[in-house]
Amino acid sequence: TVRNDNSSRFGKYLEIQFDDSAAPVGGVISTFLLEATRVAYQQKKERKERCFHVFYQVLSGASGAERSKYHLKDLSTYRYLTQSGCTSVATIDDRADFEHTKKAMSTIGLQAGQQEDIFLLLSGILSLGNIQFQGKGSSSVITSTQDLETAAACLRVPADGLARALTNKTMTTVNESINVPLNDEQAQYARDSLAKSIYGRLFEHIVAAANTAIKTAEASTSIGVLDIYGFEIFGTNGFEQLCINFVNERLHQLFIELTLKAEQEEYAAEGIQWIKINYYNNKPICELIERRGGVFSLLDEECIFPRGTDTSFHEKMVRQMRAQEISFPAQSKCLFMIQHYAGQVTYTTTGILDKNKDLLFPDLVQLMSRSSSDIASGLFQKDAAADDKRRPITTCVQFKNSVTALMETLAQCHQHYVRCIKPNELKRGGMFDEPLVMTQVKYLGLLENVKVRRAGYAFRSPMDRFLSKYKCVAKKHFDWQPNARVGVEELLKDVGITDYELGKEKVFIRSPKSIFQLEEARNNFITSMASLIHESHHDDIIFADKVYGFDAKCQRSPLTVAIAAQGVHVFQGKKLLHRAPMEDFSGITLSSDDGWMVLHMVFKTPQGKDKNAPVVSEEFVYLVENVYKAELEAVLHVLQVCNVNFQLGYSSTVPFAAKDPQEASRQKIQAESVDNQKCTIL
Hints:
The protein is an alpha+beta fold. It has 25 helices and 23 strands. The longest helix has 32 residues, at 239-270. The protein is elongated. It starts with 10 loop residues before the first strand and ends with a strand. Mean pLDDT is 84; it is low at 663-682.
């Protein structure tokens, strides 16, 4: 598309399945509203769009033998592929992707013969698009017999049977079946309907094969990832945009409701008084489209009537729909406007009935169900029962049912959001088009979500995690305080923040400015430590934290531990007490449940002034008290992932050699170890 080189043209919900040990073991893929219309129709040439890369992959990557087997011609000869004028993309290697596609097919269990059938069907779709008709009164004849024969060979059906099914349809009454010829316009509709139907069914077949390969019954939990189209407003907005914008309305409604519900539940759990929040409620818009007597309902009614047209559907909406969210331009017989949460969108009813019916004449269904290709026949056999007189389910009903099922699934999940924003129309990095970005922010409903969160407390955090991150900003050393509630109150008072409230386990801060104030103070602390390290050793800081250290006599003193790229530094005020290069920093032992930790450093002492004198290595142990150590622990795990060579261990005992055990027993630390902590000092 204009904005993406890899638009999927369908919505998907990927459920990643995990076993009891949290290892990924499988998955399930659900898809929504494949834009199969784009198989037969693409945007005008100035849009420079191409749809469904697989067609271009086959034509670029097929070998000479494969081209002959699949009856392929030059890309420029296919009408379905050349409408937009875009047949290649600079960032896409179709030849290499064709090999990746075949490998992926093998991975999900599609055998070589099945893959050949799939590529033949794709070639058949392209040849169908080249079939031309000439009208003869109320009937029509095919003028491109070569394309007809090629399409029939690819679909593995008789050429005369395909010609007859494309130019005639069978009308069944109570007593007899009547053959009705199709004029050239109707024949073109039948041709395009068959092409779209084959592609859509083939797509579902491959998704089903993928699910068979990856789904497991051994999963105990799952994470769902929803990747779905965003809100759309084009120059001309039709049935597809109405469906796409409807699902975005439903998602917006769900996200707001879940955000409000989560806020209310969290406030109640923490004993915080709930604050009434005003927000834009788009429920009337959702009901306007999906309720009985709404847009979809009236569209389905009109599709039932034999003489129903796009114009009669528009007239019915004008007569029956009275809502402030919908309006109809004067003097127009095809336009209507809906006031969506993202703004007003003008839709056209032109072609809407055909798109909703997406009708494939029974003659074509019967023809394809008798194809000699197992895959082709399998795609249509379910719908080929001659005694099935039920009216086919329309596209909007199928879509509405899928969206309802999706909403039920999402409502059972704990929500996290990743919003994708295109920075510019030129697909360039480092370039932000502010009006474009702001438009997307509006259409994604981000403002409403932020308003809901900002209307109450903009920030909330468990008190112990809050202290772990921000205790370094206190003007004095943060003393040992096992009561996190008291600690938070002391810290916020010290920093001068007053717009907060304490719940049972969490601290709530109303204004983002207060959080920015905390972050700025924390950044100043890190910056000051970085300056000290850089002055003495020209090293770059990674993390710093305020702690209490104990010497060999168990005397307690405030320290700052700083981890830098080349070593670990221990400061008392601005004075550097010890530094161990990373190669001499052997590791850290953390107590399992409380605030003790031991820094293990190796000091190398030359035995003499001679440069060749032997060096004696001796381990130096720092016993450190760091009650709220979650931030430091997270940094240590990141360093391990980055292959920094040191040991990170956990223990319920801390080995420490005191010079005077009797002196140690008189220290406050011993009493705290017994009364308040699980760590034993050895």
